[in-house]
Amino acid sequence: MEKINVIDGFLNVNKPSGITSYDVIRFIKKIPGFSSKIGHTGTLDPIASGVLVVCIGSATKKAGKFLKMEKEYLATMLLGFSTDTDDIQGKIISKVEVLQDALKEDIIHNTVNSFTGEIEQIPPSVSALRKHGTRLYKLHRQGRTIVPEPRKVHIYEIEIKKIEIPRIVFRVVCSSGTYIRALCRDIGKKLGYGAVQESLVRLRVGNFRIEDSVELNQLNKDTLSKYIIPVSVV
Q1: What's residue 145's pLDDT?
Q2: What is the DSSP string of 95-140?
Q3: Measured in whole angstroms, how far is the alpha carbon of residue 111 from the centre of its chain?
């Protein structure tokens, strides 16, 4: 099979929800003639969609640079639930009814805004973080739930876009290592109802924006090269 001549660089892929970040890598690897080294920066949960930066060739050596870049998300949180994964797909731990008039908008705004700046966050017990070399989600599948150590993260901006109780939609710009699932959980806890992340879209990683991203179904042996951003440009 004839190899595709691709330059070393980056792909700004719009990962759809319902697949893993590595499924994106598998898809590209299966393009006929593709043989370059490949990886991605910053895992997106299967439930999430949006910007996934894929590194090709020598660009894989720069993956660490992207892990440290700030991220921007659009999230929907659902009040009245707590789950073992901090998102809508987890096992329900608690559930309470949230009445339409139970929370005033100024209280919601003040509570959400109180998370701006440096905060201490406990990552979800089900995540890609490792404990003694094993991913936490793998330990969870084995029936071992590990509560990670708290760590400091930075919320640069947080803006409520819509309130339709029991849902709150917000945009957030944050440091690397921030878990939006955990942010939803903690906001809900502070509001007194608990909350889970219902949906998540990553809008940006550094200067890689969703409006400039490519859909997976646009990538094939004839189009791949034109979507690669050279290392020298980034």
Answers
A1: 67
A2: E----TTSS-HHHHHHHHHTT-EEEEE---SSSS-EETTEEHHHHH
A3: 22
CA–CA separation, 212 and 202 (whole Å): 13
173, 189 Cβ separation under 8 angstroms: no
With a CB cutoff of 8 Å and minimum separation 6, the contacts of 19 are: 46
Model pTM score: 0.91
Active site residue 84: no
Report all structural domains of the chain as residue ranges with CATH numbers, in order of start: 9-68+207-233 (3.30.2350.10), 71-205 (3.30.2350.10)
Burial class (CB in 10 A: 0-12, 13-18, 19+), 105: exposed
Tell me the average pLDDT across 109-134. 83
Question: Which residue carries 């991605």 as its tokens?
Answer: 40
Q: Of 234, 127, 137, which Cα lies nearest the Cα of 182?
A: 127
Report residue 224: phi and psi, to 5°: -50, -50
Phi-psi region of 161 (alpha: psi -120 to 50; beta: other; left: phi over 0): alpha
Q: What is the C-alpha to C-alpha distance for residues 44 and 20, in angstroms, rounded to an integer? A: 7
pLDDT tens string 139-151:
556 566 666 678 9
Instruction: Please name the residues in contact with 185: beta carbons below 8 A apart, sequence gap of 6 or more.
Output: 82, 86, 124, 194, 195, 196, 197
Q: Which of 8, 45, 86, 186 is catalytic?
A: 45
Here the tokens at position 91 are 């096992």
Per-residue pLDDT tens over the stretch 166-206: 999 999 999 999 999 999 999 999 999 999 999 999 999 99
